[in-house]
Each structure stands twice: as structure tokens, then as C-alpha cells.
Amino acid sequence: MNKDEYMEEAVKEARNGMEKNDGGPFGAVIVKDGKIIASSHNEVISSYDPTAHAEVLAIRRASKKLGRFDLSDCEIYSTCEPCPMCFAAIHWAKIKTLYFGCTKIDAASIGFDDKFIYDVIRGEAKEQKVFTYPIQRDKCLTLFEEWKNKEEKTEY
Amino acid sequence: MNKDEYMEEAVKEARNGMEKNDGGPFGAVIVKDGKIIASSHNEVISSYDPTAHAEVLAIRRASKKLGRFDLSDCEIYSTCEPCPMCFAAIHWAKIKTLYFGCTKIDAASIGFDDKFIYDVIRGEAKEQKVFTYPIQRDKCLTLFEEWKNKEEKTEY
Predict the structure, then answer these.
(1) CB < 8 Å to A117, chain B
(2) Quick one: pLDDT at residue B113?
(3) Which helix (H) or strand (E) holds A64?
């Protein structure tokens, strides 16, 4: 299979999820050594889980399958430019290559405001939807110190 | 319970997870009507899931408990300023209030590079870890068009 065919699989998966009313028109596949090892579609509606975006689900499935949180030998194909949640998830998974179909502007135009969250992170949003307050930093720093001094730990 | 006590619960949860080697020193709780309805700690190591950050898990659990993806009547407490994945997840969950302990600079100083991903999104990173390529936008736009024209759908 080639790149176009992997993306076609992601589209097929997205259409399937949309038809089942699982969520929006988003699909993703993860490819390792030329084979699709995980595919997923948005399941926000059916699972009541706001984090159940296609890319996050594909990463979870691929990690589970491989039994490791490091997917640096995998590529991801997504029908849409990932939102910041999924984009960061791809970083945490150490995936190095991402192919996407529609842009975040295309997503905004059908009602998915990934772009708004990007604007917030970039300090370009005109309004604020989440109000953040720092509290108890001292107690949390103690925790961080304990991690730093912990002898048996897996770094990731 | 008051704000400080909710954060102390998040710290307790984080310490518990760290001691069990489930993941890093991160905990979160979600509060609704003055009651903790979900608590979680980082489980990246134990679950092999790079998306299993405390805030994402807390959101998943709270959504499941309430049977809805809209958590706009909830507040979240996290031992650390959320990474972009969790920060975006909080937006998708429509949570309006976030309390955090340590900052992303504190996290970077013990080896968790949330800050790097923020820098990438802001266009301030000196290197690139994920290479992105747009492909097959036409086929994906067709899909978006189908969503737009779909009669029975849940908007979110």
C-alpha cells in the first residue's frame, strides 16, 4: 500500500464512524513497516468522551498492540490536520511523520474549532474560555522533588 | 472541601501513582457541585499509553460517570500546568476553570518537555520533531461536505 491508500483507509474509517453517528468526519490510521496496525474514527458522541478523537484513539490502540508508549517507528495518517490535543499526543507518542488531509481552517468551516484552541495557545485568541489559577505550587514542587530523587523510575 | 483540599487530593493521587511506578508525578481531580467526581494519576508507564496523562484520564472518567462529553459544570485541579494535549482536552470538555500547581517550566526542569510542544505550536521551537505533509485534501473535503449535509447529527 502507498501513502494515498493509507489516507483512503483513514477516510473510509471516518465515513464509517460518521454514518454510525459515533462522531465527526475524522479518521486516522497508524502505519508501521508498511502495515496498518491501528485505525480509528472519532467516537466523541458514542463514547461520551471528549478526548476520543481519531488520532488519540489510534495512538492508544497502536500502543496497546505494541505494548509500548514509544511509537517512533510509526507514521500517522489523519483526515484532518490534528487539533492541539492530537498534535501534542503525536509528539508524546514520538511519532515522527504525520500526513493529513483537510486543514484546521477546513475543520473550523464545518464547526470544529481546533483553530480557536490553537489561537489560545498562541496568545492570539480574543476571548478566553478556560480560566486558570495557580495554587499550591509549593506542595506540587515537593512532589516533583520526590520524582527527581526517586531511584527506580522509568523516564519517558 | 475547599480549593486547597482538592489540590491536596490531586497531590495524593499523583504520589500514589508515582510510588506504584504507573507514571510521572502528575495527578488531577474533577470537581462538580463541590464533590470530587473523578481522580486520576499519570499512567503512561503502566498502561503503555502516551495519552494517559492525569487530566485526560480524569476527563475520560468524569465523562463516563456523567454520561456526557460536556463537562462545563465541572472544575479541574491538576498538580501541573497542563501540556498542550491536556489543555486542549480541557477545552474540548468545555471545563471553564482550571487550577494547577507546578508550572510547565517546573515540569521541564524534571524532564517533561511540555514546554517544547508549546514552543512548536507557537512557532518558537528551534527544531522540529514531527514532520507533517498534507495529502489527499480533496478526498477529505468530500467527507467534510458529507458531514455538512448530514441531516441527523449531534453537533459538539
Answers:
(1) 87-88, 91-92
(2) 81
(3) helix A54-66
